[in-house]
Amino acid sequence: MKKQLFIPALCCLALFLSCTKDRNPDFIQEQWDFSGMWNAYGYTDLSGWVPIEVIEIVKTGYQEYSAYKRGGDNAVRSGVRTWVGTFNTNPVKIMMTVSNGVDQHEVELELVVKSANRLAIEKYDQITYVRRTE
Fold first, then answer.
1. DSSP letters spanning 7-69
2. Is the pTM of this model over 0.70?
3. Which tens digit of pLDDT belongs to each residue from 77-119?
4. Phi and psi, residue 12, nearest 5°
């Protein structure tokens, strides 16, 4: 009798866990592809706040992505990699290029995956990435 109750209970638990996995905000769905052109809001350069940066995100490995500035500013030129990260956790640990206009170096930050079309760096001055639709 115990075996007859144990197996259905185990099946129900497995089904429940598989259904809740996709609803977990910390879970990055593997089928999401973050490659493409994005608008970034919240970047700053030597003259202050930059209204919009155009960023191209490129898949460079299984879960690894690099982001490149397609419109440069006074701090980081166009074409320079602005960050790189492996999308296997949420938030994603990224290495971001920062500059004072003369010297460039990398700092480790966290990039939060809000959805397949929205990313955010919530530390410092809040940079938000929104996928371009055009």
1. HHHHHHHHHHHHHHHTT-TTPPPTT----EEEEEE--EETTEE-S-EEEEEEE-SSSEEEEEE
2. yes
3. 888 899 999 999 999 999 998 877 788 889 999 999 999 999 9
4. -65, -40
